[in-house]
Amino acid sequence: SVDRHRALSGVAVVGMAVATGLAVLGLPNIDLHGPLHQWGIMDPFCGGTRAARYAMQGRWILSWTYNPLGIAAVAAALAGSIRVIVGVISGRWVNVRASWTPRRRRIAMATLVIVLVILEVRQQSLAELLR
After folding, report:
1. Which of 10, 48, 56, 78 could link 23 by a cystine bridge, Cβ 3.0 to 4.6 Å?
2. What's the whole-model pTM score?
3. Whole-angstrom Cα distance, residue 110 to residue 123?
């Protein structure tokens, strides 16, 4: 009967609102890039704003082209927002609890690092598109 993931619920709802705004209103007029972007060095998150916008518009291939994380972020925000809506309406919340052993933590961190390195290489190969 209690939302034990309030912060994640807030992030999901705000993320969904921002993604909806991007889809409807377009990209912001401000430069969101880091300083290395101006020198042609992309980071794993480059193209994420455009990818989220295209994912919200249902343009999956274009979204994937800019950054696969855009689809994942929109899907996570959608799932989290649905969780909030169901929780508010029903008064019952889906709460997940995981026990992190040192081994599981190492595996999760190693997986995250590997995924980010692969994504960095991919995004750097698309530098001309992302600039």
Report:
1. 56
2. 0.84
3. 20
